[in-house]
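ping. complex inputs:
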Amino acid sequence: MPLAAKSFVATVVLVIIGSILAPSTINSAAILSTLPYFAILAMPSIGQHLVIQQRGLDLSVAGIMSFTAVIVTKLPDGSTHFGTVIFWVVVALAVGALCGALTGAIITYLGVPPLVTTIGANAILFGLTYWVSTGASVQAPPMLVSFFEGRALFVPNTIWVLAVVVGAVVFVMTRTVIGRRFIAVSVNPAAAHAVGIPLETYGLLTYVVAGLLYAIAAIMLSGYLVSPTVLCGLPYLLGTIAAVVVGGNSIGGVTKGSVVATIIGAFFLTYLAQLVTALGFGGSAEDLADAVIVIGGVALPEAARRLRLRYG
Amino acid sequence: MALHGVRKSFGPVQALKGVDLDVIPGEVHAIVGENGAGKSTLIGIAAGVLAADAGRIEFDREPIVAPNPRSMREIGVSVVYQHPALATDLTVFENLQLAAPRLDIGGAKELLDRVATPQLVMPANQRVAELSLAQRHIVELARSLATNPKVLFLDEPTEPLQQADVHKLFELIRELKRNNAAIVYVSHRLHEVDELADRISVMRDGEIIDRRLARAITPGEIVTLIAGKPLGQIFPSKAAERGEILFETRALSGHGFDQVDLVARRGEIVGLAGIEGEGQRAFIRTAAGIEPRLSGEVVVRGQAISGDRPGIFRRAGLGFISDDRHREGAFLNLSLRENLSLGFLGTISRFGLINRAREKDKAAAIVEALRIRAPSIEADLSQLSGGNQQKALVGREISAEPAVLLVDEPTKGVDIGARAEIYQRLRTAADRGLAVLVSSSDGIELEGLCDRVLIFARGRVVRTLTGADVTDASITEANLTAKVSRAAAGHAGERGGGWHGLLASDHFPAVILAILTVAILGGTEAINGYFLSPLSVKSMLSFLGILTFLSIGQLAAILVGAIDLSVGSLAGLCVVAASFLTPDGADGWSLVGGTLVIVLGAFAFGLLQGVTIAYLRLPAIVVTIASFIGLQGISLLLRPTAAGDIADEISDTAQIRIWFLPLAMVVTLLVVAGLEAALYRTDPGRRFRAVGSNPLASHRLGIDNRRLTMLAFALSGLLCGIGGMLLAGQVGIGSPSTGTDYTLMSITVVVLGGASVGGGRGSILSTFLGAALVQATSSASTFINANSSVHYVVIGSLTLLAAIFFSLARRHRLRIVTL
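pong. complex structure:
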């Protein structure tokens, strides 16, 4: 069974359980309010997915999201001028991509392990976020708020943005030469090198695209939350890794992986968080549930694989 | 020793199909066979490294139940591996001690003198990473003899050795034989077998097909037995005519060969021969653009290639098949179709879009032409047999329509049927107008396939054999008479001392860190005279103790090749727990009890994490990052906001003065000194480093990798518990968020201390000094500027700079980006 189908089945099971335990979680109002959170988690999870597929791990997702969120809230400073807002949105996207380019360059060209690089970059970015914001949170420009709280054809705009990005990523992965080579590099870098694929370019590109996706997510988050805190990116550190893992993707390349499975994983986690809240547990219980699910998410497939090996 | 009916499969491949082997004292038993015949698998099973699927092993007529590398070594079985099982981050002496813990330095030197010729002898305290290949084989040999084995397996022991070294080895083997040891000698060099063996077993496709006394068999018979049928039926006929020059190297030099001029014409197959490591493999890889060239030109169809990327070489018309199919050829988890089309994506795409219909057609055509046996073109390559995988690679490279095909070991690990088809295919490609270069260690293969054979020695072409001279016998003879006098010992000599030696030392970072710490303390004191006031120093020392404990915990995980992201949260939870279990006003005994509960609880949590990571084999990063968040969640559940005073006695006890240092600092220093000594002076310490340095080698040496990994995490938990209690004393209140920053700081400290993030290298002392530097920097930055943003930026930058510095300083290692 393909990864996407597996994670889809798991999600359906969870929703059925949820609808029995807390029927309020599946009415249309509840679903509509869940969807933006899902979109905002799914977006950076795609970035994390790409990095993990290239045998990396990106802990700077939290820092990049917090920093770019500050860029589109603090710096336009409540501006209602269209040009100003767009300018800072573009700056935020560029900063996201640039952060990715820098970490990517340190990892691919200087040979520093991704974990150490991104953990260091994350700290620097949090420092910068504090410095720019001076610790206080500022309201996002009204234009962003109305766009990301808005809907078109009954579907939240955040979902439309996600749909466009997912469509683009899936198309590139399945239909293009770039996507095929990206997969080849992730499955076996040495063999990809031998067939003439420039490893460094693909390594760098991965982090750039990831950084860009984090920035998009941060802009959506700013618009939807209205006034994001300095630490708004933090939940996405585990959240994105959890989405990849719950999607059944292996950590560290080797197998092909499925972006769609990761997105379904993001929905699973978002719905779970809503369920935990509906059942009357606070935010820290959600942390615990996430932690348990991540470990379960890596442990169960591994246990299943070993049982298969042992009993044929 | 005896093996009966041993079977072993790897996935769909049956490596051993019921092998019997008797090993008799005082006898040299040679096993010959082609690459992939199952020889190395057989040795792995005899050594307890691999578990057989079926069959049994007996020693002294006693059956052996559940063999493992350690138990086999203890009963007297020792193996000289083809790829030395050495922990490269450890010294020669330490590696010998891993096998024989009671060996002293004198004994080690004696042992090395016994096995090494004068030009290969090396200092016992040299790091294995700095040795030449030949020297590593000598160390491997010494290691296998260190335990005085009764049964000695040697797997291709002479590959990188020179004639004098080979003679010494043979003398040694004869001496062992006289002392009644049983010797199993695996080699594909028939003349060596002829010289040494009392009995010969021939292996083919996972079976022993013949076994005779050495004097009852001739080399010619062995050749026919190994190949499976008369050579004439395997190999295609040779080239009728040759065309213009397609491929040329002009004074090409690279790592391992020098100034090679070579010409290949349309329609011919040129063989490259030589003893392992004489430059032929390095040459063919450099000519394909895989390894960097140092000087000279590669010319294809009259055009010199400029640039040094494989992509450029491919576009110029070169195709390449590596000798290491799994690592560098196949994409095992991609389908057969995807594997094939990666060779010709350019021809089936427009504007970067792949035409799927054409991709399928072309892949199907290749499968048909090479008779690749696969369930379908959508089957993963891992489902195919080795022979069919190799055929797929040959098909991929030929369909990319190169002018020149470079093939390194065309039939390694390929069964006899596929072998003939691959030869046929290469010949057809040449007949259709390609030039083909083949590097092979198999003289029979070169004899049957090639029109010309060039012999490499010392990185140069020393002889060319053409026409009727292209025979296995003359290739072997040319190899041996090539008056080899490689500068094998030179490598080590160049690198040993001076600047490089200092940089490579485990304790080098300590010196730098100490200097930097003093500089920062002095500099800040110069700016602000209150910085080194007694109160400020006291607080700095307290936090240094905390950071040191957590960082050593982190180092324990990193040394075994893992990482522990949970340290900060675990220490934080200890603080919260302390606000419940050791509250203000509690009496002495309940404080001691509470402290013990917390520290042991942290230890138990570390142990649990270790079990999950080591025995369930879950990635350490994922497990510990989940713990990081989960533990923080528990802290927040217990104390949503900072509340609950912690007993003052805890910090008071930590501050008791002993001479002029607080008790906590004294304990910290003792722990640092004790653990440093344990890591470098004891057997468990060496094992710890060996696990992180080379898990495969340490497994072969009988080290229980999983148990040590589990212990590393348990130790990390214990140290976090102690550090967490010290932190509780400092914070004084049950705050849910105090610990979290320590995860990052502990990693910074370990990286600053020069530990290798991949495992195997690191020093507790350097880590302590790294903690001193981080603490000094962090105190100084908050002292000068109370803004916490600066603190984050400083720590983050320190992490990156240190990591970049050590990465560049140790660049000589192979670089493939991994976790």
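Residues 82-110 of chain A form the longest helix (29 residues).
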